[in-house]
Amino acid sequence: MPALSSSPAIEAEGLHKRYRSTIAVDDVSVSIGAGEIFGLLGRNGAGKTTTVELIAGLRRPDRGAVRVLGLDPRRDRARIRQVLGVQLQDSHLHAALTVAEMVGLYRSFYPAPLDAAELIESVGLTESRRVRFEKLSGGQQQRLSIALALVGRPRVVILDELTTGLDPQARRQMWATVESLRDSGVTVLLVSHAMEEVERLCDRVALLDAGRVVALDTPAGLVGRVGFAQRVTFRATEPVPGGLLESIDGVEQVRVDGDTVVVEGHGDLLQAVSVGLVRAGVVAVGTRSEQATLDDAFLALTGRRLDNEEETTR
Ligand SMILES: Nc1ncnc2c1ncn2[C@@H]1O[C@H](COP(=O)(O)OP(=O)(O)OP(=O)(O)O)[C@@H](O)[C@H]1O
């Protein structure tokens, strides 16, 4: 096998998967470098889970090819199992086994597994180590499935919806776990629909929509495609004179929805808008300023927000 540093850890080319009438994955190609944290971000049903199942060798693509550390995940199953850790949504684990028993069982599959007590502690399950899987909360089950993905010291890890259903503290703990994986050179493929998580953790992100990669870049690179950098929102106590906001330096777009005004643009927008309103004698209340986010990038690229509740907003 060639030196890992010079060859991608994961290479998928032209992946295609159809379930009856649904095209779940449509010509997806990604090349993920060793030691990278790579995010697959998209709405529910975008094809994220199917894509990682194809990469992990759990499903057969209709077309396309996959290599993980130079191995074919479907042909080289035994070797893949030693180097690839997979945590999928809805893992069906043995309901009657306790946390400690499950970790013990999985440790037996690997030549140099992680220390059981340390692993259980790292996912915050020490107090629950004698609790059976079926009695764990959803968040605890999820943390156990992550521990089991890591137990064999994999060089590549696939994590599907890492922190869905976890409380904020457990979520931060999981993020720290992923960051320490990266620090030790492990390649992480992270599936998520939580943009905050992706923005914080990922070196690069593929935005997936309706089975296709619509953009692939660093989080900052994706946000840079939005067309504006800042958004200022306020409520006007009286109508804003026509053209006033549009004439302010840096303003790109103005939207008015009832008494709420949204201004998008570049530079020190908050300062510029505030000064412009004061000069015109307009009193603004509830003013807030935000940076453009991955969600804005997703909206700009697909016309829909990542958040499934909110359909097209412009
Ligand atoms: N086993 C299956 N049989 C039929 N259709 C499927 C199957 N698995 C997924 N699909 C469909 O394929 C599409 C992609 O699903 P997939 O689970 O890969 O998306 P996802 O982005 O992971 O979504 P989620 O975040 O909801 O898991 C969806 O339309 C889904 O309904």
TrEMBL record:
InterPro entries: AAA+_ATPase, ABC_transporter-like_ATP-bd, ABC_transporter-like_CS, ABC_transporter_ATP-binding, P-loop_NTPase
GO terms of molecular function: ATP binding; ATP hydrolysis activity
Keyword Transmembrane helix: no
One Pfam family cited in the UniProt record for this chain: ABC_tran
Entries under CDD domains matching the protein: ABC_DR_subfamily_A
Location(s), subcellular: Cell membrane
Primary localization: membrane
Start and end residues of each ABC transporter domain: 10-235
Membrane topology annotation: Peripheral membrane protein
Record keywords: Antibiotic resistance, ATP-binding, Cell membrane, Membrane, Nucleotide-binding, Translocase, Transport
A single BP term in Gene Ontology: response to antibiotic
Protein's UniProt keywords contain Cell membrane: yes
Gene3D superfamilies from the UniProt entry: P-loop containing nucleotide triphosphate hydrolases
Official protein name in the record: ABC-2 type transport system ATP-binding protein
Record lineage: Bacteria, Bacillati, Actinomycetota, Actinomycetes, Streptosporangiales
